TrEMBL record:
This is RRM domain-containing protein. The keyword Zinc does not apply. The lineage of its organism: Eukaryota, Metazoa, Ecdysozoa, Arthropoda, Hexapoda. Belongs to the ESRP family. PROSITE patterns: RRM. Gene3D superfamilies: 3.30.70.330. GO terms for cellular component: nucleus. Residues 147-230 form the RRM domain.
Length: 505
């Protein structure tokens, strides 16, 4: 009401000053559906890219974010990831450059609790997402439906009749537009079903009724329902019919050379939730910035307990894992710091903080492969089984004395003798290179040609041993006499450095 009164006062003042409203401009309240072809010409001065959208946002939600500006028919194109899921981005096409320029001023405005980034984009960007050349999709979308719903998780042998019965049953029943012709099943290029389908409805009032059946079942499978767009229909069909165009090339990674063994630093494991995971960090953030962000809670971090995560190209991923001294410390830290802001220069980013276990951390770092468990006892190991020095382009130098990259060696996983993804771990404090790199699975033993033996690297604090013949691996762990494993698990960080030793041959 206050905004309406303010607008009336503004209009009255303009009239008093002699202004005449000769060319009234209408503003669309509802986004109109439309079809875009790859042959269309799109003005690059009318397109923006919105980033950071909630994954469940529909085209109508995005149009509401730009309310007061006229979006072209079918002008919202939701972007999909290589896996076919929404990635939080959308391309929006406006009717004129003037409206596009006003849309750019909504940079960092909010949808709910999320701020949305708005950037310029090109017409080619919009066509790559929303443009289609599939005749079946064009005929399907030209039926004049007001609502499109995407179904996911369908049985592979599902028929259009089952889909019609699915929406017609129950309390919130609704009718599909044009019967069987209002259902479009998504198929692969070889004709096999994908478990996805798009369904048309005639009226906007059918949308809540249809979406209320989310997670109801057809046969033994529950079905996921999402509101969709014409651009998403074309994008999904384009990918399924020509998947090679949308495949992301695998990164080229350097080979790994075997080198001598060194003792490995303590790293957590097990199901105790004594770790926290930070997401959304600025790419320029270092360990000291994380400590400043945690404030007084940083005193509960164990020695060498901050692990920055980098991708395979050595670029920051915006994530970090931190080992705390207890589950209670991890819980309180996650509770108090979740969605708090980190100030970094002129940037202000809210950080997601989750409580997790050491096993969760290792699963992420090793690409989803669980750590091996001893057959005798299912209790988690206290120490890693040793590691290798890995040559790297980074030299610690005077800023990081005594630190060197350590590779966590993988333990054989049974008679198949294959190894999980190897990871590279930098002890705290993290240097300005990747502490966690992902490399493809190593081949089984014997598949590689024999390597020439290398001269062992013996640290100054170790005593040199005479050359020995090859013997089986032995893992020896020395603890104080009379100390039970469970007690040691709780208090190991308080031991002097030389009272807890791991020997690996």
């Amino acid at each position: 009401m206050k905004e309406a009164k303010d607008m009336v006062n503004i209009v009255q003042r303009l009239l008093l000053d002699g202004h005449r409203f000769d060319i009234p401009e209408s503003v669309n309240l509802i986004l109109e559906p439309g079809i875009c072809s790859k042959d269309d010409e799109i003005d690059s001065n009318c397109v923006v890219r919105a980033r950071g959208l909630p994954w469940q946002s529909s085209d109508q939600d995005i149009a509401k974010f730009f309310r007061g500006l006229n979006v072209a028919k079918g002008g919202v194109a939701l972007c999909l990831s290589p896996q076919g899921r929404r990635n939080g981005e959308a391309l929006v096409r406006f009717v004129s450059q003037e409206h596009r320029d006003m849309a750019l001023k909504r940079h960092k405005h909010h949808i709910g609790s999320r701020y949305i980034e708005v950037y310029r984009a090109s017409g080619d960007d919009f066509l790559s997402v929303a443009g289609g050349s599939n005749c079946e999709a064009q005929a399907f979308l030209s039926r004049g439906a007001a609502v499109i719903v995407r179904m996911r998780g369908l049985p592979y042998d599902c028929t259009a009749k089952q889909v019609l019965e699915f929406f017609a049953s129950g309390e919130n029943s609704c009718n599909v537009l044009d019967g069987n012709d209002g259902v479009l099943f998504v198929k692969k290029s070889d004709g096999r079903a994908t478990g996805d389908a798009f369904v048309l409805f005639a009226n906007e009032t059918d949308a809540p009724k249809a979406l209320s059946k989310h997670r109801e079942s057809i046969g033994s499978r529950y079905i996921e329902l999402f509101r969709s767009t014409t651009a998403e229909v074309q994008q999904v069909l384009n990918r399924t019919l020509d998947p090679k165009v949308y495949e992301t090339p695998a990164p080229i990674l350097p080979p790994i050379h075997p080198v001598p063994l060194l003792p490995q630093h303590i790293i957590t494991s097990g199901t105790r939730k004594d770790c926290i995971r930070l997401r959304g960090l600025p790419y320029e953030a270092q360990v000291e910035h994380i400590l400043d962000f945690l404030g007084d809670y940083a005193k509960n971090i164990v020695f060498q307990g901050v692990h920055m995560v980098y991708n395979a190209q050595g670029q920051p991923s915006g994530e970090a894992f931190i080992q705390m001294d207890s589950e209670q410390s991890a819980f309180i830290t996650a509770q108090q710091k979740h969605h708090r802001y980190m100030i970094f220069g002129k940037k202000q980013r809210y950080i997601e903080v989750f409580q997790c276990s050491g096993e969760d951390m290792n699963l992420v770092l090793t690409g989803g492969i669980p750590a091996p468990v001893s057959p005798a006892k299912a209790a988690p190991a206290l120490l890693s089984p040793g590691g290798n020095i890995i040559p790297t382009a980074f030299h610690p130098g005077p800023n990081f004395p005594g630190y060197a990259p350590v590779q966590i060696a993988a333990t054989p996983l049974g008679p198949r003798q294959f190894l999980p993804h190897q990871i590279f771990y930098w002890p705290y404090p993290s240097p300005p290179v990747s502490p966690t790199n992902y490399y493809p699975t190593m081949p089984p033993p014997g598949a590689l040609p024999p390597q020439q033996p290398q001269q062992p690297l013996i640290p100054p604090e170790c005593v040199g041993l005479p050359p020995m013949a090859a013997i089986p691996t032995m893992d020896a762990r020395l603890m104080s006499d009379g100390l039970q494993r469970s007690e040691h698990e709780k208090s190991r960080q308080n031991f002097p450095q030389n009272q807890y030793v791991e020997l690996i041959i």
